[in-house]
Specification:
three-stranded antiparallel beta sheet
Length: 149
């Protein structure tokens, strides 16, 4: 639940998100699937991948007063991530492509017009993270790069 002590929807399990470490958070997604794009002899673009295992890369960045709980986190560690970002689909013909983060205190899905919006729960592996600190500005800067397993 969003509160003064934890003003974010983001959940990272098992490391959690300390208070004042994730206000103003930004999440960026890109595809990390098996697409193998190539051109035919007729210069038509085709995908040689089987298209069944599209996965996401995700980068979380933030500047706040405290650092996240990344002590002991290493490359290859698996985290369960309840995203702040909402994915959406046409309600009448679609369904969520990922598990809905439904065990949080905040509603993880809602309908808006003809669309359903939901916050996904992703199982992701740590690829990298960066920490920096601006002493004079009292700003903790961090980013976490993840790849869906």
């Amino acid at each position: 639940m969003i509160s003064a002590d934890n003003p974010t929807l983001l959940r990272l399990d098992p490391i959690s998100v300390p208070p004042y470490s994730a206000r103003g958070i930004s999440e960026e997604f890109s595809l990390d699937g098996d697409a193998q794009l190539a051109r035919t002899v007729n210069n038509t673009l085709i995908d040689l991948g089987d298209g069944t295992s599209e996965k996401y890369r995700m980068s979380i960045t933030c500047t706040d007063q405290n650092m996240p709980a990344l002590d002991g986190v290493r490359r290859g560690m698996v985290l369960t991530v309840d995203c702040s970002t909402e994915f959406s689909y046409l309600t009448a013909t679609g369904s969520p492509s990922r598990t809905v983060a439904s065990t949080t205190d905040d509603p993880a899905s809602r309908e808006e017009g003809a669309y359903t919006l939901y916050r996904p729960r992703l199982t992701m592996m740590v690829a990298d993270y960066r920490l920096s600190f601006d002493e004079w500005g009292a700003a903790c800067n961090w980013s976490l790069d993840l790849i869906e397993v």
